Amino acid sequence: MFKRLWTIFARDIKVGTRDFITLFVLIFPLVFAFGINLITPGINDTTVNVAMVAGEDPDREAYFDRFAHLTLLPDRQAVADRVLQRDSLIGVVRDGSGMLVLAQGNEPDEAVELVKLIAVLYDSGAQTGSEQTELVSLGRTIPPLKQIMVNALLLFVSVLAGMLIALNIIEEKTDKTISAIHVTPVSRLTFILGKSLTGAVFAVLMSVIGLFVTGCGQINLLQMLPVILAMTLLSIMIGFIQGINGDDVMEAAGSVKLMFLPLAGSIIGYELLAEKWHPFLYWSPFYWAYRANEMILSQNGSWAQLLLFVGINALLGAGVFAVLAPRIQKGLQAQ
Amino acid sequence: MIHVSGLYHSYSQDDRYAVKDVSFDVPKGEVFGFLGPSGAGKSTTQGILTGLLKLQQGDVTVAGYPVKSMKNEMFNRIGVSFEQSNVYSKLTARENLAFYRQLFDVPTRDPLELIRQVGLGGKENLKVGTFSKGMKHRLTFARSMINNPELWFLDEPTTGLDPAIAANIKDIIKAQNEKGTTVFLTTHNMFIADELCHRVAFIVDGEIKLIDSPKNLKLQYGEKVVTVEYLADGRPQTETLSTVQAEDKARLQAILGTYEIMTMHTKEATLEEIFITVTGRGLT
Q1: Which tens digit of pLDDT belongs to each residue from A257-308?
Q2: Residue A158 near residue A232, CB atoms below 8 Å
Q3: Does residue A299 come out as left (phi exceeding 0), alpha (psi in the -120 to 50 range) or beta?
Q4: Same-domain check for residues B85 and B110
Q5: For the sheet containing A49-53, what is the strand order?
Q6: How many CB pairs lie under 8 A apart between chains A and B?
Q7: Looking at the complex, does the CB of residue B69 fall below 8 Å from at least one CB of chain A?
Q8: pLDDT band at residue B127, thresholds of 50, 70 and 90?
Q9: Which of B76, B82, B91 lies closest to A180 in CB terms?
Q10: Is there a single domain that holds both residue B180 and residue B256?
Q11: Is A182 on the interface with B (CB under 8 A)?
Q12: Within 13 A of B265's CA, how many CA atoms are on the CB side?
């Protein structure tokens, strides 16, 4: 059985490298991961932007420049005007012997507090290198934006795994080769497992690579595995049914793309809706996977919590399986 | 090698049967022709015998394995060539056969040898997507031999092939049969059936109307006549005469002794004519 599984898997990979759409699916998560790195800051990058009046207090300017992104403007009015713009930027201007922090009011509290902290450190004459310091994790090791995007990447990967399966099945259907496989000693189960292997390996491999590329490799990968597998199993079922129902590659790609709707809806809903509205998202496996991923990425949850989320996901998957399995079996029989 | 008894199959799961009370046996080493027009139930029967369709009713044994509880290992002993070619278009001819040979547990044949045997030598490294319909069909046929099958199911093996290639395919089938391979040949081409089959079954509307050898059928249904064309007074004349009635025999002798003979043919019934006589239906 394992020899045949490997044979089917190796064939799918070989054919995949000769198909543009499959190649695109295979490469997309990597491009996405590098894209995340380009547009989001790392945890060690400063996230506070400060504007000061040029030449007003050269020592203070130099001190702030070491800890913040500093913008120098010609006068106090220019600093005030700049603070009023849409982005998150805090002004620091002289006020007698002390200084004044100018904020619009919608900046993150952490940013304002960080500016105040830098100012206090400057006033107290603190210098880097003169202290014995230690980095202490406060429960957040990945910047929030990056965490959202990496989480979305992991969900994308599982959907793309389903898309790979669908493309494979479509190829078999177009070439009418499923019946040829059925008259070899390959059992239906081996065939389904062999076809699923491409998607499963892709999902696990791309998730791990994605995590390392985005600098999140330090998380507990063992915890990530059940989430990836639960989502991939679901995607594989969707992939099979899309493949069986579709007649050409573009149709299958279009159908699988529809899965991005609940995926995006779950992420947006989770991030933007108040907690009392979350029960409306409980039906979505993506919601639970997103929550589980968030917990793992922030390294802020227990195995019990994780298994609860994965368990709910598995239950939803079982429901989908109960509905789709007979159709998949019948569909493969009829090819 | 094949035993079928009381086989019924309905796609709509009711009493509208595609195959109705079909029974036959195929002994080892025989080439058995399953003949009928499109939609007669030939492919349905072959589908059930090869496990592609679920056995609904009847007793079917293939290569010693009951189809009802079919084991995958059975496919090590059988080969199936489909009417519609079904090979991977993104793989080369060689890669196609190399892939399939790895799915069997028995010794398999060299892909290159098979490719050459069906006349595709030199094309082994081309992607099958670039092949013509006939080339794909030949590759499908070649693939069905990869596991040295004891029982070989052939569905319209020469359809769409030019006469020279079709003759080559017929020679391969004959050679394999001489080596002991049992052949179940599904076709509506009576000429290939006549040439290859030890016995044929006529199937129409899901029912077998007759099973016999082509020779017996011709003896039974053929007319014992001869058509002779000769020149009389410089003008061509044609007469059809019985080869058994005394009067016609005498007339034939007179023509042969008197006139210049242009052509002379015995009138042997073709399988197609016998099929029409027996079933009242044509083959298309």
Answers
A1: 777 888 888 888 888 888 888 888 888 888 888 988 888 888 777 888 888 8
A2: yes
A3: left
A4: yes
A5: A69-73, A49-53, A90-95, A98-102
A6: 67
A7: no
A8: very high
A9: B82
A10: no
A11: yes
A12: 7
A4–B88 C-beta distance less than 8 A: no
Residue B73 contacts A where some CB pair is shorter than 8 Å:
yes
| Overall average pLDDT of the A40-51 stretch | 68
A155 touches chain B (CB under 8 A): no
Kindly state whether residue B283 falls inside one of the protein's structural domains.
no
> Which amino acid is located at B89 in the chain?
S
Q: Rounded distance, CA B209 to CA B192, Å?
A: 20
Domain count for chain B: 2
Cβ-Cβ contacts under 8 Å for B3 (sequence gap 6 or more): B25, B59, B60, B61
User: pLDDT value at position B96?
Assistant: 94
Which of A7, A175, A176, A187 should be substituted to probe chain B, the one whose Cβ sees the most B Cβ atoms within 10 Å? Answer: A175
Q: Which residue in A14, A175, A185 is closest to B87 by CB distance?
A: A175
- Tell me, yes or no, whether B251 and B185 share the same domain: no
Which is more confident, B18 or B275?
B18
Is B24 a member of any domain?
Answer: yes
CB–CB of B50 and A183 under 8 A? yes
Q: Is the pLDDT of residue A132 over 90?
A: no
Q: What are phi and psi of B127, to 5 degrees?
A: -65, 140
pLDDT digits (tens, 9 = 90+) for A18-29: 888 888 888 888
**Across chain A, where does the E strand assignment appear?**
49-53, 69-73, 90-95, 98-102
Domain coordinates in residue numbering, chain A: 2-40+140-334, 49-123
Residue A288's CB: how many other CB atoms inside 10 A? Answer: 26
Q: Is residue B19 part of a domain?
A: yes
Cβ of B90 and A15 within 8 Å? Answer: yes
Residue B116 neighbours by CB distance under 10 Å:
15
In the sheet where B199-204 sits, what is the strand order?
A: B78-81, B151-155, B182-187, B31-35, B199-204, B207-212
Of A169, A157, A161, A176, whose CA–CA distance to A8 is shortest? A169
Residue B151, domain extent: 2-219
Q: Which residue has the tokens 């049967």?
A: B17
